[in-house]
């Protein structure tokens, strides 16, 4: 119970501590490490794809393996890299920004992480058991329902499990932000990162159930002989496409919105100015979330939904450019006249603005349904979505990691190495993806294994591959920076950036109870207000008292492990009935753990105020 | 608030389910979850509506469905919704025994519903040869109604587990939120059933 | 002193009990109406009234029943339900979009 003796323990104890932890800051570490691991795997897959496409008629990998590469690259990057990295940031930062001691459901927070991790592992086990999924990350039927082997089964089970984790995480953050804000932290005083986390969680809540249903139908079709997507028995493949994109389009806003929030906080901090147009920013975030649900069919313009449907979805898609434009201008105006400090975090943020805007503009091009018939499934689309996802999400994750690293790990990432990692990545990124727009317009289709000599595609692809290597170099320098910082850099102060929000009012890294006394929030940028009035820290809202903390628990790990085992059972019961034993064992473990959780009282424990005083100035 | 105040409150507050922060969190969180469930069932309903005409042979909705059984099931579930309202009424008046009694009645009605549903499925499979695999309509029907049935099973197990666990110690601020959200879940199951009997059975019969 | 607080809290409890009773009456009324609507719905189908008329009425009756469930049985009309109501309505909006999609643009 007492985390006070957390130091001076062996490796085994540390692992056990992380397996059972319900502390949002440690769960953030877990998300970061596993998300980073999958990011590297996804990056490796990307490099293999680029090497295969480097020259005409290349046979670096076989066509079948190439299909597995593109499928796993997309799936891994979206579900297993970007999502957890975002959850890492949310977990590390949101409770601190709103002045909370923990999230609303610490137990569920841990469960969400383990479900994600076991789902991701299940998906990647497929590499070693006879082939990864190969029907594209969109997994369209009938390509997916007729795909041989068990690859697509792994896709279905892996995403189902990790998707459940994401849904749980989303609900957790919603309730945290609704119920756990410190006194005075009204909705319109929340930092933008908290706001975007809130809207993102709403999107998760309403988007993921559609994926859940889609995956269930796919699972039933592939493993239990139902006929949802089987045209010969009256099924309809368009159902999968709709369900996938009803989830899939909000998903891209789920990815980008939190980083919009991070950029807002970073740009305002390093411009030494309050965010320009705060309420417009909030409004734009809500509007993007709202419109994000009405545009999914723009992925299906060429399906043949008819001119009316295509027109409606074209118009609603173009409408999203308006709130996004509001945001772009507000960031620019925040910097305008500010005293800008070019830290690594700020560098990534400034690079994001033009890069993402290019992606946004090609987005408007693609939104025009008639023109989309030309762009559809070409490299133009690949160029577009990498511009928004790499130029937006990945730049954002790098920026946010530089910004919040001291709060997460107690040390400021080396700035020089930060700049050094930025330039190859930034140049490499534009080199890789800008040319892909033109390759697309020249007729190079997406997902093709190779192309012929004399199609004038060779030069462009070569440039693209060179760029990919530069991005890899940038990533490696960033990794080196992490190691270098851990060894060489000194302990960071509580407020290394002269920050504006509550997380900078407590030590880096914060004590496990975050705030000794809950802070009183007196306006937007609460810490900055106190600084301007000449105070050192934030005014507390309560006298020093006992702090209630949740108990650690191994149950989330066991529940997820159960589903992991049951997942194998579901996949292989098609081959042999004996695999139902795995289903029974796994589900038994999961349901048994759930029952234990329900029946066993877990009231948490208290840190007594005497202990808090003893520790000296814990804040 | 110390553990003792939570487990053995000297005086029960007005809304025991929302008296602690944990209770408030559970309350909001569970409503959010129900919002997500709405989309989940909408996706299932959408799939069903898209495939309802994809029948094979004689097994069409008009031919299969009998309204008598569905009417009984509807009455059972609707009444169980009222009895769980009674249970929550007694919880708010801090009368644990009566709450347990009404929850018990709710569970019995729920079991009755479940029995009917199992009989119905059995009947379709053995009398009509209408299964999960016979047509896209069959897949969609069993998936939609089966998902609802699965929710009923889960809801019943949940309520029974809570009842047994707290039989001896009575109501406190720790278990009141659990009882409350379990009853919310039960109501939501009835909400879904209202649409199932309307969209699947009645409109299926109308054709 | 203690007597005094005891009597006021007892008084408070009585008020709450009265409130609960009133709420119960509303709930019983809504239950009766729900049963009535169910009878009407089944009756219309059994009497084989024209489907152009029956279908919209069936949907309407179901929606009213659900409103009763949400507002009376699940207490959404009470205080402190702003967030739940907002989330339910958002969920319902997405649900309606989904249903419209699957009944119009799936390539029949």
From TrEMBL, chain A:
Function: Cytochrome c oxidase is the component of the respiratory chain that catalyzes the reduction of oxygen to water. Subunits 1-3 form the functional core of the enzyme complex. CO I is the catalytic subunit of the enzyme. Electrons originating in cytochrome c are transferred via the copper A center of subunit 2 and heme A of subunit 1 to the bimetallic center formed by heme A3 and copper B.
Keywords: Cell membrane, Copper, Electron transport, Heme, Iron, Membrane, Metal-binding, Respiratory chain, Translocase, Transmembrane, Transmembrane helix, Transport
Known pathway: Energy metabolism; oxidative phosphorylation
Transmembrane feature ranges: 30-53, 73-94, 106-128, 154-180, 192-220, 243-263, 275-296, 308-333, 345-365, 385-405, 417-442, 462-483, 554-572, 578-596
Family statement drawn from the similarity comment of this UniProt entry: Belongs to the heme-copper respiratory oxidase family.
Annotated ranges, domain Cytochrome oxidase subunit I profile: 10-522
Organism annotation: Salimicrobium halophilum
Cellular component terms per the entry's GO annotation: plasma membrane
Enzyme class (EC, first level): translocase
Protein name: Cytochrome c oxidase subunit 1
TrEMBL record, chain B:
MF terms (GO), sorted A to Z: cytochrome-c oxidase activity
Sequence similarity: Belongs to the cytochrome c oxidase subunit 3 family.
Record has 4Fe-4S as a keyword: no
GO cellular component: plasma membrane
CDD domains the record matches: Ubiquinol_oxidase_III
Compartments in which it is found: Cell membrane
PANTHER family for the chain: CYTOCHROME C OXIDASE SUBUNIT 3, CYTOCHROME C OXIDASE SUBUNIT III
The protein, known as: Cytochrome c oxidase subunit 3
Record domain Heme-copper oxidase subunit III family profile: where: 28-205
Organism: Salimicrobium halophilum
Keyword tags: Cell membrane, Membrane, Transmembrane, Transmembrane helix
Membrane-spanning parts: 28-49, 69-89, 101-122, 142-164, 184-204
Domain of life: Bacteria
GO biological process: aerobic electron transport chain
PROSITE patterns documented for this protein: COX3 (PS50253)
Membrane topology summary: Multi-pass membrane protein
A Pfam family that the UniProt record links to this protein: COX3
UniProtKB/TrEMBL annotation, chain C:
Swiss-Prot/TrEMBL keywords: Cell membrane, Membrane, Transmembrane, Transmembrane helix
Pfam families reported for this sequence: COX4_pro
Keyword Chloroplast: no
Membrane topology: Multi-pass membrane protein
Location of this chain's protein in the cell: Cell membrane
Domain of life: Bacteria
Any one cellular-component term (Gene Ontology): plasma membrane
Bilayer-crossing regions: 28-47, 53-73, 85-107
Alphabetical list of NCBIfam families matching this protein: CoxD_Bacillus (TIGR02908)
Protein name: Cytochrome c oxidase subunit 4
Organism for this UniProt entry: Salimicrobium halophilum
């Amino acid at each position: 119970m007492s985390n006070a003796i957390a130091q001076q323990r062996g490796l085994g104890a540390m692992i056990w501590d992380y397996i059972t932890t319900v502390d949002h800051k440690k769960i953030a570490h877990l998300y970061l490490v596993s998300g980073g691991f999958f990011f590297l795997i996804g990056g490796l897959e990307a490099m293999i794809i680029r090497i295969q496409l480097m020259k005409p008629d290349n046979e670096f990998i076989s066509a079948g393996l190439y299909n597995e590469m593109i499928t796993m690259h997309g799936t891994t990057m979206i579900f297993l890299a970007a999502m957890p990295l975002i959850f890492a940031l949310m977990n590390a930062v949101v409770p601190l920004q709103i002045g909370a001691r923990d999230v609303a459901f610490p137990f569920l927070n841990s469960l969400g992480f383990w479900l994600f991790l076991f789902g991701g592992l299940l998906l990647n086990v497929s590499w070693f058991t006879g082939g990864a999924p190969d029907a594209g990350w969109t997994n369209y039927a009938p390509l997916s329902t007729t795909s041989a082997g068990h690859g697509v089964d792994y896709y279905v089970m892996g995403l189902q499990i990790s998707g459940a984790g994401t849904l749980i995480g989303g609900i957790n953050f919603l309730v945290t932000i609704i119920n756990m804000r410190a006194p005075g932290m009204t909705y319109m005083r929340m930092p933008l990162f908290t706001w975007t986390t809130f809207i993102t969680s709403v999107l998760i809540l309403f988007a993921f159930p559609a994926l859940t249903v889609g995956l269930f139908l796919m699972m039933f079709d592939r493993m239990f002989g139902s006929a949802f997507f089987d045209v010969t028995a009256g099924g309809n493949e368009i159902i999968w496409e709709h369900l996938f994109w009803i989830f899939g389009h909000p998903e891209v806003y789920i990815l980008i919105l939190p980083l919009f929030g991070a950029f807002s906080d970073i740009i305002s901090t390093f411009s030494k100015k309050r965010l320009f147009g705060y309420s417009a920013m909030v409004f734009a975030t809500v509007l993007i979330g709202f419109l994000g649900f009405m545009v999914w069919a723009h992925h299906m313009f060429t399906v043949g939904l008819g001119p009316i449907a295509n027109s409606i979805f074209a118009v609603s898609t173009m409408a999203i450019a308006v709130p996004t434009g509001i945001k772009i201008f507000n960031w620019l105006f925040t910097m305008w006249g500010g005293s800008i400090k070019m830290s690594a975090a700020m560098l990534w943020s400034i690079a994001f603005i033009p890069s993402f805007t290019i992606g946004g503009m090609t987005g408007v091009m693609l939104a025009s349904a008639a023109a989309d018939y030309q762009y559809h499934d070409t490299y133009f689309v690949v160029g577009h979505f990498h511009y928004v996802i790499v130029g937006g999400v990945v730049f954002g994750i790098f920026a946010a990691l530089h910004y919040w690293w001291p709060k997460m790990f107690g040390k400021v990432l080396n700035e020089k190495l930060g700049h050094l990692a930025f330039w190859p990545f930034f140049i490499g990124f534009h080199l890789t993806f800008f040319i892909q727009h033109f390759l697309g317009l020249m007729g190079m289709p997406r997902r093709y294994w190779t192309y012929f000599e004399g199609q004038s595609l060779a030069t462009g692809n070569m440039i693209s591959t060179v760029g990919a290597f530069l991005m890899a170099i940038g990533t490696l320098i960033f990794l080196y920076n992490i190691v270098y910082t851990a060894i060489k850099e000194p302990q960071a102060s509580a407020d290394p950036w002269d920050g504006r929000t509550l997380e900078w009012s407590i030590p880096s890294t914060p004590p496990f109870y975050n705030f000794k006394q809950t802070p009183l929030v007196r306006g937007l940028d609460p810490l900055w207000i106190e600084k301007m009035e000449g105070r050192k820290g934030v005014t507390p809202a309560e006298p020093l008292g006992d702090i209630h903390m949740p108990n650690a628990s191994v149950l989330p790990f066991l529940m997820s492990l159960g589903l992991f085992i049951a997942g194998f059972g579901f996949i292989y019961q098609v081959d042999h009935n004996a695999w139902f034993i795995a289903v029974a064992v796994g589900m038994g473990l999961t349901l048994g753990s759930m029952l234990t959780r329900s029946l066993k009282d877990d009231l948490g424990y208290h840190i007594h105020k005497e202990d808090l005083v003893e520790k000296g100035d814990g804040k | 608030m110390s553990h003792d105040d939570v487990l053995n409150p000297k005086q029960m507050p007005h809304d025991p389910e929302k008296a602690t922060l944990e209770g408030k969190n559970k309350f909001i969180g569970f409503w959010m979850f129900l919002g997500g469930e709405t989309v989940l069932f909408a996706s299932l309903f959408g799939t069903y509506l898209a495939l309802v005409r994809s029948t094979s042979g004689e097994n069409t909705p008009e031919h299969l469905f009998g309204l008598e059984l569905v009417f009984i099931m509807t009455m059972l579930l609707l009444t169980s919704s009222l009895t769980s309202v009674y249970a929550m009424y007694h919880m708010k008046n801090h009368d644990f025994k009566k709450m347990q009694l009404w929850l018990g009645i709710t569970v019995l009605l729920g079991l009755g519903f479940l029995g009917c549903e199992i009989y119905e499925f059995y009947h379709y499979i053995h009398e009509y040869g209408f299964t999960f695999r016979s047509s896209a309509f069959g897949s969609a029907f069993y998936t939609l109604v089966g998902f609802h049935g699965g929710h009923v099973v889960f809801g019943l197990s949940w309520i029974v587990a809570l009842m047994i666990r707290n039989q001896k110690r009575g109501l406190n601020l720790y278990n009141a939120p659990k009882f409350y959200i379990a009853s919310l879940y039960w109501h939501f199951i009835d909400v879904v059933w209202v649409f199932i009997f309307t969209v699947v059975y009645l409109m299926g019969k109308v054709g | 002193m203690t007597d005094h607080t005891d009597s006021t809290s007892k008084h408070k409890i009585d008020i709450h009990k009265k409130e609960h009773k009133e709420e119960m009456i509303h709930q019983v009324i809504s239950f009766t109406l729900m049963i009535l609507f169910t009878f009407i719905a089944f009756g219309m189908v059994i009497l084989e009234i024209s489907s152009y008329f029956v279908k919209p009425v069936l949907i309407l009756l179901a929606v009213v029943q659900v409103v009763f469930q949400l507002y009376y049985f699940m207490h959404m009309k009470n205080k402190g339900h702003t967030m739940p109501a907002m989330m339910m309505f958002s969920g319902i909006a997405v649900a309606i979009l989904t249903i419209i999609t699957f009944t119009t643009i799936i390539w029949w």
